[in-house]
Amino acid sequence: MALAFGPLSSHPSLPPMDDAEFARWVRLLEARTGVVVAPERKPFLVGAVRARMREAGFADYASYYAHVAAEGSGLVEWTTLVDRLTVHETRFFRHPPSLQLIGERWLPEQLRAGARALHAWSIGCASGEEAYSLAMVLDRKLALSGAEAQTYVGVTATDVSHAALAAARAAVYPASRLGEIPPEYRAGYVEMVGEDSFTVVERLRRRVGFAMLNLLDAGRAPLKQLDLIYCQNVLIYFARERRRELLAQLAGLLRPGGLLLLGAGEVTAFAHPLLTRVACPGTLAYLRNR
């Protein structure tokens, strides 16, 4: 998932947001989501806040901020605002080298070790394309190896956006995006819905569960002893020191032999005593030490 601030909206009736007000919104967003908004992204944050203020009937930043920041009563509005602040850019099979590492190297090793159940976590799943791609790769490789009857695979996919998760659960996508899915996967994992849309087959959808989760709460999440954590194009929106804290938490959630896959370039010079870097061109991956 790529997380990007939505387009600028202009509302002449509202005053400009000064730097102090902008800094206050930046602090709130980072405190609640971990996402850091750089000063050059100010127009995008301001545009999203102003658009939502107009919809909700607020005429000044101070009253809207007080409403959103209020514990309890402001949480519904906060959830709506987060959906507006974030545009989820993703696609099926977005990073082939990572998926090839999973299917061609990591999964065969797990099967040779006698794995009978594998649990993967897709972080920042947006509208579900990444999670379904993972499930397709794992399911197809299991079938080709003859191990589908002996080994169960499940994917838990999480995001902070209610709207994105609703789209992921619906699993209906424009037919124009069929080309994102390699032909060998299209045949067994998608079916048309009319002429203009397609969906992921029910058999595979049952293997993928979606839930709302803030990555900042990863340490308290009921996800333990994971076999695979797929976290790409998410950490780049966090401060560098926060990224390392989150990575340490993710390392602790992996079982020995588990795989952590990040987006290439999301962290540099990272090392952790529980993890060993995987040598694989075009990927940023770590194995949990046995």
Automatic annotation (TrEMBL):
Cite the EC number: 2.1.1.80
**MF terms in GO:** protein-glutamate O-methyltransferase activity
Q: Which reaction does it catalyse?
A: L-glutamyl-[protein] + S-adenosyl-L-methionine = [protein]-L-glutamate 5-O-methyl ester + S-adenosyl-L-homocysteine
Q: Which PROSITE patterns match?
A: CHER
Q: InterPro entries, from UniProt?
A: Bact_Chemotaxis_MeTrfase, CheR_C, CheR_MeTrfase, CheR_N, CheR_N_sf, SAM-dependent_MTases_sf
Alphabetically sorted, this entry's keywords are: Methyltransferase, S-adenosyl-L-methionine, Transferase
Describe the location of the CheR-type methyltransferase domain by residue ranges.
16-290
Q: Which GO terms describe its biological process?
A: methylation
SMART domains given for it?
MeTrc
Under Gene3D superfamilies, the record lists:
Chemotaxis receptor methyltransferase CheR, N-terminal domain, Vaccinia Virus protein VP39
Write the protein's name.
protein-glutamate O-methyltransferase
Mind giving the lineage of the organism this protein is from? Bacteria, Pseudomonadati, Pseudomonadota, Gammaproteobacteria, Lysobacterales
